[in-house]
Design brief:
With about 675 residues, this protein is of the alpha/beta class. About 35% of the residues lie in helices and about 20% in strands. It has 21 helices and 21 strands. Strands 3-2-1-4-5-14-13-12-8-6-7 form an 11-stranded mixed beta sheet, with helices on both faces.
């Protein structure tokens, strides 16, 4: 995309304005000015003195127009003006970046910029944003799902439409299905914020509440109430910068609070604190934003993200769309209050691999297991564990960060490629297994899911191997027939199978052409049965290695109870699972979904693996869990409030320890059981 950078910086005689432009092709970036102009200091001072505040509701709308036109006159003069005008008149897709290198320049309300009756910052074709960008700055690639942390710093009576904003943001994120996960903290302590932040390492940090610009010796800060004492604690700019420094900062900070982007005394703001700490982009408010307008902006922002924007639009485009939406709904200048400032290139402001892999795009409509579902209620820790395992990180190792953006893997010793998901029946293990496979497919790793309930009724060892190779006969979901398109990879195994079942010794060399399975019966009474089975497994493991060399695969095996009485179960553990655990099939990772009894019966504790126990939620999470569940079930606000009241009534007198089955409580409330089991 054509990029125009307007660099505005202090000079000996005032200010210098430089224009840099070029077509952004790959890593190309404009690096030398094609035009320059001098701007007298008096012109900037006059605008700083006379431009009305955007949050002044008493002024006439013509004041916004005059301010916008005056700003354009300040920005476009000398040799710069005709070049900017030519790009604007062409009306072709491009982006403008205001690189403001003086605090007083940042204090001007550039978002009101106007050219020929056109407010530029709401344009969705020619996108405008502020930014001082480092072209080579790294960014996080391991980005599915998009992780969002929402901190609500206020409560009832705060004159902020926080419930409306929170509902809008949650609704948009829920519409993204498994592509997003989020956590909401209501009026937390600083320690709670930091603890939760370390757990999930969000890509986006979103704050709802009160903010203050730096003024009269007071630092710029966010105000967070504490429910018990009805007091507030201030999270100031210095504290924010120190908290997130060293590679811990979120990629994007959305600070939907008054004055969070206002350049107060000393030129500091809360939004700048996040940028200084390492965030790639920050969205804040320049002035006092009405509660309803803040809620509408957040609704439009996350709505644009949820409808596919994360895969097709950069954050500046999404913010422009949100501003435009607010402008349609509110004739005041509230649409111009949001300030987006960049530190990375626009296309890198959102995690780049939020866009799914091409194969995932192709198969999503044909895989029922990946159809849009309601997001999980809780289970954040379990999903993080599975995601880190799949990405090659040890979930039990301490985090290691770089000094720029995001978290870098602490891989240490190679993880065993076998993962075990265990827990009681009907607690959501299968749903989590599908989630992990969806994560794999989005990352470009093939997913395969096999339910032993669908295997051949006899379930002898040959039938079991054929089932892994072929999947479910007639299954519409290719997730359940993952290797069906690998005839060459299994050709030698098919030849060996045909020979061995006839009592012959297969040759050592590969067959000259593709061989099909002849479908011969397995005579379990044949002598030297152990030798036959070992040769079959050796050949089968070789076939799996061939099938996964160019297409890494995660194979999930579920419902082992269906083959608990089969001799095949005795062979799978030592002759297949062990081989995979020893990384002798490098392209294959194995996910075993088992109950506690199956775990013990197969002696999986002695198998090199990473396991996660899926059990009922800790008792101290019941209140939060019920509120989250109720918020998703009840659409009517009055019903939702009633549900929350009932939760308080139940949890307080009985105590969370007595609420051992959360779903019985939900059914008592008339909400019914959640979809997908205990998810």
């Amino acid at each position: 995309m054509h990029t125009v950078i307007l660099r505005f910086e202090s000079a000996a005689s005032g200010y210098t304005l430089s224009l840099l432009e070029g077509d952004d092709d790959g890593n190309a970036w404009p690096d030398a000015p094609s035009a320059k102009a001098d701007v007298p200091a008096a012109d900037v001072a006059a605008l700083l003195k006379n431009a009305p505040a955007l949050d002044d509701d008493t002024r006439a709308e013509t004041a916004d127009e005059k301010t916008g036109e005056a700003l354009f006159g300040l920005l476009c003069r000398g040799d710069v003006e005709p070049k900017v005008a030519a790009v604007l008149e062409a009306d072709t897709p491009c982006r403008f970046i205001l690189d403001l290198r003086a605090d007083e320049l940042e204090a001007l309300p550039w978002e009101a910029l106007r050219y020929r009756r056109r407010f530029l910052f709401v344009d969705q074709t020619q996108i405008w944003a502020r930014g001082t960008i480092s072209p080579a700055r790294p960014f996080v690639e391991r980005a599915w799902p998009l992780k969002v942390m929402i901190v609500v710093g206020c409560g009832p009576g705060s004159q902020i439409a926080y419930e409306e904003e929170l509902d809008a943001v949650q609704s948009a994120l829920r519409n993204m299905g498994h592509a997003a996960e989020y956590v909401v903290l209501h009026r937390p302590s600083k320690e709670r914020i930091l603890d939760e932040y370390e757990k999930i390492r969000p890509h986006v940090f979103h704050f709802i509440g009160h903010g203050r610009a730096a003024v009269d010796g007071m630092k710029a800060h966010l105000a967070v109430e504490i429910p018990e004492g009805k007091q507030k604690w201030a999270w100031n700019d210095d504290d924010i910068a120190e908290t997130f420094r060293g590679g811990k900062a979120p990629i994007v900070a959305v600070i939907n609070a008054c004055g969070s982007a206002s350049m107060g005394n000393g030129g500091f703001s809360v939004a700048r604190a996040f940028l200084d700490a390492g965030s790639g982009a920050a969205v804040g408010m320049q002035g006092k934003v009405p509660g309803k307008s803040a809620a509408k902006f957040a609704e439009a922002l996350y709505g644009a993200l949820a409808d596919g924007g994360g895969a097709t639009r950069s954050l500046p485009e999404i913010v422009a769309r949100a501003r435009s939406k607010v402008k349609q709904l509110d004739q005041r200048a509230a649409w111009a209050l949001p300030v987006l400032a960049l530190r990375v290139r626009p296309e890198r402001t959102l995690p780049i691999s939020f866009a799914p892999a091409p194969r995932y795009v192709q198969i999503q409509a044909r895989v029922p297991e990946f159809a849009p579902k309601e997001p999980f209620v809780n289970r954040r820790d379990e999903r993080r564990f599975l995601r880190l395992c799949l990405d090659g990180e040890d979930p039990r190792a301490p985090s290691v960060t770089n000094d720029d953006l995001g978290q870098q893997p602490n891989k240490g010793p190679a993880l065993p490629p076998v993962f075990v998901l265990k827990g009681p029946a009907r607690i959501g293990k299968t749903r989590l297994a599908h989630w992990m496979l969806e994560h794999a497919e989005r990352r470009g790793v093939r997913g395969a899911y096999l339910d032993w309930n669908r295997a051949d009724a006899r379930r002898d060892i040959v039938a079991v191997l054929r089932f892994i190779r072929d999947g479910e006969r007639g299954a519409a979901s290719i997730l359940r027939c993952a290797f069906a398109d690998e005839p060459k990879a299994f050709s030698r195994f098919n030849r060996d199978l045909n020979e061995l079942l006839q009592g012959k010794v297969p040759p050592d060399e590969d067959p000259a052409s593709v061989v099909a399975d002849a479908g011969l019966e397995h005579d379990t009474s044949r002598a030297k049965q152990e030798d036959l089975i070992q040769r079959l497994f050796d050949s089968f493991c070789d076939a799996l290695a061939r099938a996964t060399t160019s297409t890494p695969t995660v194979l999930a095996l579920d419902q082992f109870d269906a083959i608990k009485d089969s001799p095949a179960l005795d062979y799978l553990r030592p002759r297949l699972f062990n081989v995979i655990a020893q990384n002798k099939i490098p392209g294959l990772r194995l996910l075993l979904v088992v109950t506690e009894d199956e775990y013990r019966r197969m002696d999986l504790d002695s198998l090199p693996q990473r396991s996660i126990d899926l059990s009922i939620w800790p008792s101290d999470q019941f209140g939060e869990l019920l509120r989250e569940y109720g918020g998703r079930v009840w659409e009517n606000p009055a019903s939702k409030q009633l549900f929350e009241t009932l939760v308080k009534v139940w949890v307080k007198p009985f105590g969370p320890e007595q609420l051992r089955d959360v779903h019985k409580v939900c059914v008592m409330a008339g909400a019914g059981a959640p979809p997908g089991g205990n998810s």
